[in-house]
Specification:
binds 2-amino-4-trifluoromethylsulfanyl-butyric acid, five-stranded antiparallel β-sheet, single chain, binds cobalt (II) ion, Creatine Amidinohydrolase
Protein backbone atom coordinates (compact mmCIF):
# COMPACT_ATOMS: atom_id res chain seq x y z
CA UNK A 1 0.00 0.00 0.00
CA UNK A 2 1.31 3.43 -0.88
CA UNK A 3 1.59 5.98 1.92
CA UNK A 4 -1.18 8.56 1.59
CA UNK A 5 -0.48 12.28 1.44
CA UNK A 6 -3.12 14.28 3.30
CA UNK A 7 -4.65 17.43 1.83
CA UNK A 8 -4.78 20.61 3.89
CA UNK A 9 -8.45 19.89 4.65
CA UNK A 10 -7.54 16.45 5.94
CA UNK A 11 -4.64 17.87 7.94
CA UNK A 12 -7.01 20.35 9.60
CA UNK A 13 -9.29 17.48 10.66
CA UNK A 14 -6.37 15.47 12.01
CA UNK A 15 -5.03 18.49 13.88
CA UNK A 16 -8.40 18.86 15.59
CA UNK A 17 -8.57 15.11 16.33
CA UNK A 18 -5.13 15.38 17.89
CA UNK A 19 -6.02 18.43 19.94
CA UNK A 20 -9.06 16.66 21.37
CA UNK A 21 -7.09 13.48 22.07
CA UNK A 22 -4.50 15.41 24.03
CA UNK A 23 -7.29 16.73 26.24
CA UNK A 24 -8.49 13.15 26.77
CA UNK A 25 -4.99 12.23 27.90
CA UNK A 26 -4.82 15.21 30.25
CA UNK A 27 -8.09 14.12 31.86
CA UNK A 28 -6.95 10.53 32.20
CA UNK A 29 -3.54 11.48 33.60
CA UNK A 30 -5.30 13.36 36.39
CA UNK A 31 -7.18 10.17 37.39
CA UNK A 32 -4.13 7.97 37.74
CA UNK A 33 -3.92 7.37 41.50
CA UNK A 34 -3.69 4.39 43.86
CA UNK A 35 -7.14 2.82 44.27
CA UNK A 36 -8.53 3.61 40.82
CA UNK A 37 -9.48 0.65 38.62
CA UNK A 38 -8.38 0.32 35.02
CA UNK A 39 -12.10 0.02 34.17
CA UNK A 40 -12.78 3.48 35.63
CA UNK A 41 -10.03 4.93 33.44
CA UNK A 42 -11.62 3.36 30.36
CA UNK A 43 -15.09 4.63 31.32
CA UNK A 44 -13.79 8.16 31.77
CA UNK A 45 -11.87 7.98 28.51
CA UNK A 46 -14.92 6.88 26.54
CA UNK A 47 -17.05 9.55 28.22
CA UNK A 48 -14.63 12.38 27.38
CA UNK A 49 -14.15 11.16 23.79
CA UNK A 50 -17.91 11.01 23.21
CA UNK A 51 -18.43 14.39 24.91
CA UNK A 52 -16.36 15.89 22.06
CA UNK A 53 -18.63 14.25 19.47
CA UNK A 54 -15.83 11.83 18.61
CA UNK A 55 -15.83 8.04 18.29
CA UNK A 56 -13.49 5.90 20.42
CA UNK A 57 -11.56 4.18 17.64
CA UNK A 58 -10.27 1.25 19.69
CA UNK A 59 -13.73 0.09 20.82
CA UNK A 60 -14.55 -3.04 18.77
CA UNK A 61 -11.41 -2.61 16.64
CA UNK A 62 -10.71 -6.22 15.63
CA UNK A 63 -12.93 -7.08 18.59
CA UNK A 64 -11.02 -5.05 21.21
CA UNK A 65 -13.58 -4.66 24.04
CA UNK A 66 -12.79 -1.16 25.39
CA UNK A 67 -11.98 2.43 24.40
CA UNK A 68 -8.65 2.78 26.19
CA UNK A 69 -5.80 0.29 26.42
CA UNK A 70 -4.62 0.24 30.05
CA UNK A 71 -1.39 -1.70 30.55
CA UNK A 72 0.12 -2.11 34.02
CA UNK A 73 3.78 -2.88 34.88
CA UNK A 74 4.89 -5.90 32.80
CA UNK A 75 1.99 -5.31 30.39
CA UNK A 76 3.46 -3.52 27.38
CA UNK A 77 0.36 -2.59 25.38
CA UNK A 78 -3.28 -3.53 24.76
CA UNK A 79 -4.13 -4.27 28.40
CA UNK A 80 -7.89 -4.77 28.73
CA UNK A 81 -9.52 -2.58 31.40
CA UNK A 82 -11.05 -4.51 34.28
CA UNK A 83 -13.15 -3.70 37.36
CA UNK A 84 -10.87 -6.09 39.27
CA UNK A 85 -7.60 -4.37 38.38
CA UNK A 86 -6.88 -1.74 41.02
CA UNK A 87 -3.84 0.50 40.58
CA UNK A 88 -1.51 0.68 43.57
CA UNK A 89 1.34 2.97 44.55
CA UNK A 90 4.55 1.94 42.84
CA UNK A 91 2.83 0.68 39.69
CA UNK A 92 3.35 2.20 36.28
CA UNK A 93 0.44 2.37 33.85
CA UNK A 94 0.43 2.95 30.10
CA UNK A 95 -2.68 4.56 28.66
CA UNK A 96 -3.23 4.28 24.92
CA UNK A 97 -6.18 6.14 23.41
CA UNK A 98 -7.56 6.79 19.95
CA UNK A 99 -10.47 8.77 18.57
CA UNK A 100 -12.11 9.69 15.29
CA UNK A 101 -13.07 13.30 14.52
CA UNK A 102 -14.97 13.90 11.27
CA UNK A 103 -13.62 10.66 9.84
CA UNK A 104 -9.99 11.25 10.86
CA UNK A 105 -8.03 9.38 13.50
CA UNK A 106 -5.65 10.45 16.23
CA UNK A 107 -3.70 7.93 18.33
CA UNK A 108 -1.49 8.61 21.36
CA UNK A 109 -0.10 6.85 24.42
CA UNK A 110 1.54 7.88 27.69
CA UNK A 111 3.02 5.95 30.63
CA UNK A 112 2.32 7.31 34.11
CA UNK A 113 3.59 6.63 37.62
CA UNK A 114 0.99 5.55 40.19
CA UNK A 115 1.87 7.34 43.42
CA UNK A 116 5.56 7.12 44.25
CA UNK A 117 7.65 4.92 41.99
CA UNK A 118 11.32 3.95 42.04
CA UNK A 119 13.82 6.26 40.30
CA UNK A 120 14.70 3.32 38.04
CA UNK A 121 11.14 3.02 36.78
CA UNK A 122 10.84 6.78 36.31
CA UNK A 123 14.05 6.71 34.28
CA UNK A 124 12.61 4.10 31.93
CA UNK A 125 9.43 6.15 31.46
CA UNK A 126 11.51 9.26 30.75
CA UNK A 127 13.82 7.51 28.29
CA UNK A 128 10.82 6.08 26.43
CA UNK A 129 9.33 9.55 25.99
CA UNK A 130 12.71 11.05 25.11
CA UNK A 131 13.29 8.36 22.48
CA UNK A 132 10.19 9.61 20.67
CA UNK A 133 11.39 13.22 20.71
CA UNK A 134 14.85 12.17 19.59
CA UNK A 135 13.47 10.01 16.76
CA UNK A 136 11.18 12.67 15.35
CA UNK A 137 14.16 14.95 14.76
CA UNK A 138 14.64 12.65 11.77
CA UNK A 139 10.97 12.79 10.75
CA UNK A 140 11.19 15.30 7.96
CA UNK A 141 10.74 15.44 4.20
CA UNK A 142 13.70 14.02 2.32
CA UNK A 143 14.63 11.53 5.03
CA UNK A 144 13.53 7.90 4.95
CA UNK A 145 11.45 5.89 7.36
CA UNK A 146 14.45 3.95 8.61
CA UNK A 147 15.99 7.19 9.88
CA UNK A 148 13.17 7.30 12.44
CA UNK A 149 13.30 3.57 13.26
CA UNK A 150 17.06 3.57 13.74
CA UNK A 151 16.93 6.68 15.90
CA UNK A 152 14.63 5.06 18.48
CA UNK A 153 16.92 2.06 18.83
CA UNK A 154 20.08 4.18 18.91
CA UNK A 155 18.67 6.42 21.61
CA UNK A 156 17.47 3.58 23.85
CA UNK A 157 20.38 1.17 23.43
CA UNK A 158 22.92 2.91 25.75
CA UNK A 159 20.44 2.59 28.65
CA UNK A 160 20.31 -1.18 28.25
CA UNK A 161 16.55 -1.29 27.85
CA UNK A 162 14.77 -3.60 25.42
CA UNK A 163 13.06 -2.28 22.28
CA UNK A 164 9.98 -4.37 21.51
CA UNK A 165 10.06 -5.69 17.94
CA UNK A 166 6.73 -7.45 17.59
CA UNK A 167 4.73 -4.22 17.46
CA UNK A 168 5.23 -1.10 15.37
CA UNK A 169 4.04 2.43 14.79
CA UNK A 170 2.01 3.11 11.67
CA UNK A 171 0.59 5.55 9.19
CA UNK A 172 -2.76 7.01 10.29
CA UNK A 173 -5.59 8.99 8.72
CA UNK A 174 -9.02 7.77 7.65
CA UNK A 175 -7.92 4.46 9.19
CA UNK A 176 -6.25 3.81 12.54
CA UNK A 177 -3.58 1.72 10.88
CA UNK A 178 -2.35 2.79 7.45
CA UNK A 179 0.91 2.19 5.59
CA UNK A 180 3.75 2.35 6.44
CA UNK A 181 4.56 0.12 9.40
CA UNK A 182 7.09 1.93 11.59
CA UNK A 183 9.41 -0.41 13.53
CA UNK A 184 11.34 0.99 16.47
CA UNK A 185 14.64 -0.61 15.44
CA UNK A 186 16.99 -0.40 12.48
CA UNK A 187 15.84 -1.99 9.23
CA UNK A 188 17.97 -3.36 6.42
CA UNK A 189 16.29 -1.14 3.84
CA UNK A 190 15.90 2.61 4.16
CA UNK A 191 12.14 2.45 3.78
CA UNK A 192 9.78 4.96 2.22
CA UNK A 193 10.86 8.49 1.40
CA UNK A 194 9.19 10.88 3.85
CA UNK A 195 7.09 13.55 2.17
CA UNK A 196 5.11 16.54 3.47
CA UNK A 197 1.52 15.53 4.23
CA UNK A 198 2.32 12.06 5.55
CA UNK A 199 0.74 11.47 8.96
CA UNK A 200 2.38 8.91 11.23
CA UNK A 201 1.84 7.41 14.68
CA UNK A 202 5.27 6.83 16.19
CA UNK A 203 5.21 4.68 19.29
CA UNK A 204 8.30 3.32 21.04
CA UNK A 205 7.55 0.38 23.39
CA UNK A 206 10.45 -0.11 25.78
CA UNK A 207 11.16 -2.77 28.43
CA UNK A 208 13.39 -2.64 31.49
CA UNK A 209 14.72 -6.12 30.74
CA UNK A 210 14.62 -8.45 27.75
CA UNK A 211 12.78 -7.18 24.67
CA UNK A 212 10.86 -10.46 24.28
CA UNK A 213 7.08 -10.36 24.69
CA UNK A 214 4.15 -12.78 24.62
CA UNK A 215 0.39 -12.50 24.29
CA UNK A 216 -1.86 -13.43 27.22
CA UNK A 217 -4.73 -15.89 26.69
CA UNK A 218 -7.12 -12.92 26.34
CA UNK A 219 -5.47 -12.57 22.89
CA UNK A 220 -4.78 -8.86 23.46
CA UNK A 221 -2.56 -8.11 26.43
CA UNK A 222 1.10 -8.06 25.44
CA UNK A 223 3.45 -8.74 28.38
CA UNK A 224 7.20 -9.02 28.75
CA UNK A 225 8.45 -12.60 28.81
CA UNK A 226 10.71 -11.88 31.80
CA UNK A 227 8.00 -9.87 33.67
CA UNK A 228 10.11 -6.72 33.52
CA UNK A 229 8.11 -3.48 33.48
CA UNK A 230 7.52 -1.68 30.18
CA UNK A 231 6.68 1.82 28.97
CA UNK A 232 4.94 3.21 25.87
CA UNK A 233 4.87 6.69 24.37
CA UNK A 234 3.04 7.62 21.17
CA UNK A 235 1.99 10.68 19.23
CA UNK A 236 0.38 11.30 15.86
CA UNK A 237 2.60 13.59 13.79
CA UNK A 238 2.64 15.36 10.42
CA UNK A 239 5.67 15.32 8.13
CA UNK A 240 6.53 18.79 6.82
CA UNK A 241 9.52 20.29 5.02
CA UNK A 242 10.89 21.25 8.42
CA UNK A 243 10.10 20.17 11.98
CA UNK A 244 7.25 17.68 12.24
CA UNK A 245 3.99 18.93 13.72
CA UNK A 246 2.89 16.85 16.71
CA UNK A 247 -0.91 16.75 16.57
CA UNK A 248 -1.40 15.02 19.94
CA UNK A 249 1.11 16.95 22.01
CA UNK A 250 0.80 20.71 21.91
CA UNK A 251 -0.24 21.58 25.45
CA UNK A 252 2.99 20.00 26.66
CA UNK A 253 5.07 20.30 23.53
CA UNK A 254 7.38 23.05 24.75
CA UNK A 255 8.16 21.43 28.08
CA UNK A 256 8.56 18.00 26.48
CA UNK A 257 10.87 19.41 23.84
CA UNK A 258 12.83 21.16 26.56
CA UNK A 259 13.47 17.78 28.16
CA UNK A 260 14.90 16.12 25.09
N1 LIG B 1 -2.10 2.56 19.61
C1 LIG B 1 -2.38 1.16 19.41
C2 LIG B 1 -2.04 0.75 18.02
O1 LIG B 1 -1.64 1.58 17.26
C3 LIG B 1 -3.69 0.77 19.91
C4 LIG B 1 -4.72 0.18 19.02
S1 LIG B 1 -5.07 -1.42 19.36
C5 LIG B 1 -6.73 -1.58 19.72
O2 LIG B 1 -2.06 -0.39 17.65
F1 LIG B 1 -7.11 -2.68 19.23
F2 LIG B 1 -6.89 -1.54 20.97
F3 LIG B 1 -7.42 -0.67 19.16
CO1 LIG C 1 -0.80 3.39 17.45
Amino acid sequence: MPVSIKSSREIDAMREAGRLLEIVHEELAAMVKPGVTTWEIDQKGEEVIRSFGCIPSFLNYNGYPASICVSVNEEVVHGIPSRKRVLKAGDIVSLDAGLIWEGYHADAARTHAVGEISPELQKMIDVTRESFFYAIRFAKAGNHLNDISSAVEEFVEPYGYGVVRELCGHGIGTHLHEAPEIPNYRQKSKGVLLRPGMTLAIEPMITAGSRSVRWLSDKWTVVTLDHSPAAHYENTILITEGEPEIFTCKIRQDSENGRR
